[in-house]
Structures
1.
Amino acid sequence: MRASKAETAVRQEQIAEAAMDLIGAGGLSGLSIVGIAERVGLVPSAVYRHYKGKEAVLDAVMALLRSRMLANVESVRAETPEALPRLRRLLERHMAMMVEKPAFIHVVLAHFSQADHAERWSSLNNTMCAYLQEVVRIVEQGQADGAIRPDIPPRTAAVMFIGLVLPAAMLYRLSGGKFDSAAHVESAWPVFERGLTAN
Amino acid sequence: MRASKAETAVRQEQIAEAAMDLIGAGGLSGLSIVGIAERVGLVPSAVYRHYKGKEAVLDAVMALLRSRMLANVESVRAETPEALPRLRRLLERHMAMMVEKPAFIHVVLAHFSQADHAERWSSLNNTMCAYLQEVVRIVEQGQADGAIRPDIPPRTAAVMFIGLVLPAAMLYRLSGGKFDSAAHVESAWPVFERGLTAN
DNA sequence: CCATATTGTGAATAGTGATTCACAATTCCC
DNA sequence: GGGAATTGTGAATCACTATTCACAATATGG
């Protein structure tokens, strides 16, 4: 059956989405032109009408992830003004995103694993640093307000923050969805907060 | 130049080591028979004299990692009797291992990424659960001693513990060794400890 | 020292996935 | 309605890697 024609802009979006799902399901190595074509309902060669190649598709996925990540921070900034509630809210959102869009963590981990230092990865690196920096800023704000102990290096707190998400997201996936990531946020947050604030 | 002959037992060890280094350098996808052969100083086909195939080599790597991981826990147990110092010591050792044997984290992440549910992975899963369980046990002991707050779910604490290592190890690698993982342990531990103990 | 098992080598095979290309169908615009 | 541009198709090519195999060199034990 021949696929009906669609504009390149539409196909590009479909392809990027399909690629993201594929990565979410099987990691970076699970991403193949054949797989993408199947999901979109095309023949492999048709993909090349809309992207120059696999690399270009990956770039598109990266861009997607980056925008979602930063949008996340933005909306948390808008929601709550105080540092600690902000962090907590960001934690919830970050975790939820990892769970519903596994492609994220896969790409990050794949990035980590990749030996080749293509420019493609540097953009992701950028995204990650930017995100970490956002967390650092929130921590610094909390220290200025007196809500967070001043003797904690903000970067340390930020890395620990990431550490609240990463293993939980991995366990969630490894357990096939059994691990309750929301509950982990619930019970881990007080411990983290106490570490940030108590005397 | 022809390689000098060596016993299979020796070659097996060399091959497993080479495989571990390769994975450490380029992730699971960086592991190839050609790469192994180069490192050991053999021709690719010679590898098959000592291992049935790539899968078998991987199994050997897994076994290596497992034994090192568990040995780690054992020696920490022997070193210090109290829960909190034990955790701290384990944290240091765990981090050091991640830094000097990147293969470990790569395999874990690759495991996470893999779609296929081969038996091979279940053994790794086993190792990871066992490790997590060890941490849980230490935490429980601390709660029994009164050193750790009883209202913290031990599993939560254990997952957070892993979270102290994972992101730091990744940053270390992503930064090309610039990130000071030991310093991170140094500054993150007090925060974590305070979260576990303070009133 | 020699028969034999063990180990190493190079070439050949096979499967996978990305990419290209000439051609066919579809849509758009006049 | 009829080009012309756009999009989809199937086959072919290419590169890469695991794996096998017949043969060569080397070690080993009697």
2.
Amino acid sequence: MMATKGKTKNLSDLPEPLSTQADERTAHPPLSDWDALLDEISHRPKRATERKQDRSKRTEQQILAAALRVFARDGISRTRIADVAAEAGISTSTLYEYYKSKEDLAYDVPLSHLAEFFESYRNAVAGKETARERLMLYLSMSADYAREHAEWARLLYLEIWPSVFVSETELHRSIDDFSRVILFLVRQGISEGKLAADRDPYETAALLVGGVNQVIITWLLYRRPRNLTKAGTEMAERLLSMLENEGAGRG
Amino acid sequence: MMATKGKTKNLSDLPEPLSTQADERTAHPPLSDWDALLDEISHRPKRATERKQDRSKRTEQQILAAALRVFARDGISRTRIADVAAEAGISTSTLYEYYKSKEDLAYDVPLSHLAEFFESYRNAVAGKETARERLMLYLSMSADYAREHAEWARLLYLEIWPSVFVSETELHRSIDDFSRVILFLVRQGISEGKLAADRDPYETAALLVGGVNQVIITWLLYRRPRNLTKAGTEMAERLLSMLENEGAGRG
DNA sequence: TATTTTTTCGACTTTTTGTCGGAAAAATAT
DNA sequence: ATATTTTTCCGACAAAAAGTCGAAAAAATA
């Protein structure tokens, strides 16, 4: 486990609260917690691949692409390893050289897209300072990314998340990262005085994640409402407005 | 502010004059849409069991109970049919007499609890008239029921829902029922003037379901916050207050 | 008690997963 | 270039799990 500061409550499985109190004195921190967080989530090692030849990297990509297609089409539980291998144009035994089981494969498939999402968010959010701007961008980009990569989203939202959490996988950590960003920004919103300070940040984060995810899931299942990007953005806008209103009403 | 419609369905334009015991002898009993809905979701046929002997009914219960335990403990994908059969104290081939596959079994396991939840809600909500009361009860009871039947909830929330939606199962319909109740009450809240009329009821329902489900899922994964009933109730209370505030601000 | 119907299960087949040694391909050394 | 070593790939096989079926056991009925 990583170094923990202060008393260690048994919150080991929860996203660690990032330090928020230390940098009160510096007007402009050299590397803000925010940048550090973005840095961290973008740099998670994807997969300790020990393969030497370029050929192998190509094969791995073929496997992942094939698995995404087949999983999204048939569902993970119904697909057979042999199906994925055939789709990838290799033998089953070769696939076993790369992944030791279907579960192992399934947990690896969503990783690269997730990393890509974090990376594109990091680029897009540069320059935005307020918690509201950052949150709005994050949530609407989530919805938009799901729309644009529907197979991936279907796999992640409907099949893997949240059941992936039972196991200690790289994917688990990456999905935790997703929530940590929200949590960080909720805390920023509180310190900006925009969000209610007397509310549990975890609850506020859950509210945001839950609402937007629900919109995404509904779209994946029924393709409704038609425009997912718009629906996700509206939901985020609505939630944030209500939350700010709540914060203002209390002081 | 109120919808004016000439005919079609009277979707609770007014606070429901609940049937009570007034006009019992009319040809068409004054069963309100609300009562009809509750009636419908409570009476979904559970499973067309054609078994004749009592012994079979016991065996079926043993299978379902065993499956719940094993699925919750090992996860559906990791459990073998033989494990469930052993836990139920029967042979695998006997289990196949009852369920044609693991998937078939998995989709049947949550049904009885779901029916029980609907039934107990129906009893508890009797007498409550306003959309707020009904919604609060529904959402907090959802959280409480998940706490009290954690194995069942783990199976349903983390493993089956929402992936069950891809197939046409009885469980699919039952889970749809869950959302239909929320949607109905959101509409009632709008017609009462408590919720914003210019918002998509589906979006409002998604917001409520998403937020509370997120709390339940987090608890199932991390047992945090400690008190799920309280957390679910608080989340519901908070969301409803914000929604009513939103409605009042615009009205 | 005899007969019929229903339920159970052991033996079996089929399907899917997973392993392994060596062939094929690529990288490296001579 | 050719030989040698390393890496990747795959066919043949073994292991595990799913799924079938006929007949025995149990219950219901005559």
